[in-house]
């Protein structure tokens, strides 16, 4: 059975739980508390030398890390990853966008709020507002004319962007300014096998 090493509040870990559940693939959860340094132990660094979660153990001694790489691995050959070459590239395009233009601002802000460090990082949080809202603006513009991000059907591009977007308010971002994102979020939540980030 697959083993998912994760920190449950993490959106990056939630991506994998959501996809595995929607693919109906059984997996075992292995919680690692990043606040206690549990991903920096020698034992864990064998699984991921970068010391981060999520990590998917495919079989004994075979590990994958980086959330979007894990989603690619799991979704290939399924309805969650297109067979068309251009659409496949579009999925990857949005996943790169998520990691470089979205996650560093929205996810990091949320983490500081959830861990009670908002006051300590007050200036940094303010600096993350403009690029975070810019990323949401790019998404809003696309979703104004599309039901989903690629091929007008639900793919790992949606899972990747949904994970931190739907909880962006926990990082100080006002999602009421983005009606297309809100409609898309509801659409994602209506997909078969959907689970919440708390599950």
Quickly describe the structure.
The protein is 50% helix and 10% strand. With 199 residues, the protein is of the alpha+beta class. A hairpin with a 2-residue loop joins strand 3 and strand 4 (62-65).
Distance between the termini: 19 Å
Counting DSSP E segments of at least 2 residues, the number of strands comes to: 4
Number of domains: 2
Radius of gyration: 17 Å
Q: What this model shows, in words?
A:
This protein is of the alpha+beta class and 199 residues long. It has two domains: 2-75, Glutaredoxin (3-Layer(aba) Sandwich); 85-190, Glutathione S-transferase Yfyf (Class Pi), Chain A, domain 2, CATH 1.20.1050. Helices cover 50% and strands 10% of the residues. It has seven helices and four strands; from the N terminus they run E-H-E-H-E-E-H-H-H-H-H. It has helices at 11-22, 42-47, 67-75, 85-114, 122-143, 156-165, 179-189, and strands spanning 2-6, 27-31, 55-59, 62-65. A four-stranded mixed β-sheet has the order 2-1-3-4, covered by helices on one side. Helix 1 (11-22) packs across helix 6 and helix 4 (85-114) runs antiparallel to helix 5 (122-143). The radius of gyration is 17 Å and the shape is globular.
Topology readout:
Layout: E1 2-6, H1 11-22, E2 27-31, H2 42-47, E3 55-59, E4 62-65, H3 67-75, H4 85-114, H5 122-143, H6 156-165, H7 179-189
Parallel strand pairs: 1-2
Antiparallel strand pairs: 1-3, 3-4
Helix pairs in contact: 1-3, 1-6, 4-5, 4-6, 5-7
Defining key terms:
single chain, 199 residues, alpha+beta, Glutaredoxin, Glutathione S-transferase Yfyf (Class Pi), Chain A, domain 2, 2 domains, four-stranded mixed sheet, 4 strands
């Amino acid at each position: 059975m697959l083993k998912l090493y994760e920190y449950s509040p993490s959106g990056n870990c939630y991506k994998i739980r959501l996809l595995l559940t929607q693919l109906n693939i059984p997996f075992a959860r292995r919680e690692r508390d990043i606040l206690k340094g549990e991903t920096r132990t020698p034992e864990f660094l064998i699984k991921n030398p970068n010391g981060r979660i999520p990590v998917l153990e495919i079989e004994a001694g075979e590990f994958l890390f980086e959330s979007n790489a894990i989603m690619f691995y799991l979704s290939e050959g399924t309805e969650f990853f297109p067979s068309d070459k251009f659409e496949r590239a579009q999925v990857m395009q949005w996943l790169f966008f998520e990691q470089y233009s979205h996650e560093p601002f929205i996810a990091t802000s949320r983490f500081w709020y959830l861990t009670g460090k908002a006051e300590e990082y007050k200036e940094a949080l303010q600096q993350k507002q403009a690029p975070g809202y810019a990323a949401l603006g790019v998404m809003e513009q696309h979703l104004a004319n599309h039901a989903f991000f690629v091929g007008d059907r639900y793919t790992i591009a949606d899972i990747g962007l949904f994970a931190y977007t739907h909880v962006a308010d926990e990082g100080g971002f006002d999602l009421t300014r983005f009606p297309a994102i809100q409609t898309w979020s509801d659409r994602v939540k209506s997909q078969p096998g959907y689970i919440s980030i708390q599950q």
